[in-house]
Amino acid sequence: MSYNDRRRFIKLGLASSAALAAGCTDAPKAHTSTTGPDRTKGPLILSTWKHGLAANATAWEVMRTGGTVLDAVEQGVAAVESDLTNRSVGLGGMPDRDGHVTLDACIQDHDGRAGAVAFVQRFEHPIRIARAVMERTPHVMLVGAGAERWAEENGFSRRDVEIPEVKAKWLEWLEKAEYRPVVNIENHDTIGMVAMDASGRLAGSCTTSGMAFKIHGRVGDSPIIGAGLFVDGEAGAACATGVGELVIRTAGSHTVVELMRQGMEPTEACKEAVRRIIRQNKDMQDKQVGFLAIRADGAFGGWSVYDGFDFALRTNDREELVPTGHDRKWVG
Ligand code: ASP
User: Fold this and answer.
1) What are 166's strand-pairing partners?
2) Ligand 1 center to residue 313 CA distance, Å?
3) How far apart (Å, rounded) are the C-alpha atoms in residues 90 and 84?
4) Which of 33, 231, 313, 325 could form a cystine bridge with 108, CB 3.0-4.6 A?
């Protein structure tokens, strides 16, 4: 099979195989009522997927011991970046189609200051480089070779990691035309985190190895401020996970925050952002997207296209994985 034949199965990193009942709406088992939000005075941490539990634990400890909410969101997701068993974040992530693991990350604080890196290779902590870009440069985003050079010049060391299991999966992918990455299982997907401290200050972070077997050079939503993450202390914070192209095209996290600014409950704002994506895309088969949000008053929520998107929640009295409400039933 030719290279192009293999590639035609990928289609934005996702090829379809199973039929979904179009427009099927699954009665949402929403973690929040759609008439009134969950709310806390903070501290409060939400992060995507099961790996969010470990990230939240680290972030909570940072705030408990006097760190800022910005420190918390940085260190929380950095803990997941260090986990080489994680196949969607950090150097343990799945490679692109050329066999390279390329990483994207961003961070934003209560006042809207932001830093991001994209398409960087061989660094353990893209989130730390993103924060350094925010704090030490006049820019928001550095990418590729320039980002890598700047990181080295600013004290970040390269790290080479070769994981036989990952290499084997890539080689297998090169051979198996029917392979399709799935974005709705726990060991895949970005970690996005939004948090509020006890005084109501917000921050957010997002870091990923992106879609498995993407085209070399592809960057998704995760490092894009307004797409994978958006924080505005006046209104709220939101982050996204799933098929990044769909999130970028709708400025997803920015949409969620702006809807909350207009008074919408976080769950409803996430739902509307998801529904814009559904309206914009006829073919949503196998394309998961989920959002999490905290409003400036401490209300929080989430929503996803399909079931299966859980978020990790940490408050003074809750530490758990919570399913989001969703529009469709995943039958993949
Ligand atoms: N949003 C990420 C991307 O498009 C993928 C993910 O969440 O797994 O790169």
Assistant:
1) none
2) 20
3) 7
4) 231
Atom of ligand 1 minimally distant from the CA of 218: 9
Sequence-distant (≥ 6) Cβ neighbours of residue 262 within 8 angstroms: none
Instruction: Give the residue-averaged pLDDT of 122-139.
Output: 98
**Over 90: is that where the pLDDT of 174 sits?**
no
Higher pLDDT, 290 or 179: 290
List the structure tokens of 32.
Answer: 């929040």
Q: Residues 190, 241, 250, 267: which is the catalytic one?
A: 190
Nearest in space to 187 (alpha carbons), one of 73, 308, 292, 72:
308
Using CA positions, which residue lies closest to atom 8 of ligand 1?
Answer: 189
Tens digits of per-residue pLDDT, 37-72? 677 677 999 999 999 999 999 999 999 999 999 999
Q: Which of 1.10.150.20, 2.40.128.110, 3.60.20.30, 3.40.50.300 would CATH assign to domain 3-10+38-317? A: 3.60.20.30
205 alpha carbon – ligand 1 mean position (Å): 14
Give the pLDDT mean for 143-151. Answer: 98
Q: What distance in Å separates the CA atoms of residue 105 and residue 262, rounded to the nearest whole number?
A: 28
- Cα 251 to the chain's mean position, in Å? 14
Distance 318 CA to ligand 1 centre (A): 27
Q: Among 30-39, 118-127, 218-227, 293-302, name the one with the lowest average pLDDT.
A: 30-39
Residue 96's nearest CA partner among 159, 170, 164 is 170
d(CA 216, CA 194): 29
For residue 186, is pLDDT > 60?
A: no
Contact 260, 207 (CB under 8 A): no
Does ligand 1 lie within 6 Å of residue 14's CB atom? no
User: Taking 90 as the threshold, does the pLDDT of residue 32 lie above it?
Assistant: no
Whether 190 is catalytic is yes
128 close to 74: Cβ distance less than 8 angstroms: yes
State the closest ligand 1 atom to the C-alpha of 183, by its place in the atom list counted from 1: 8
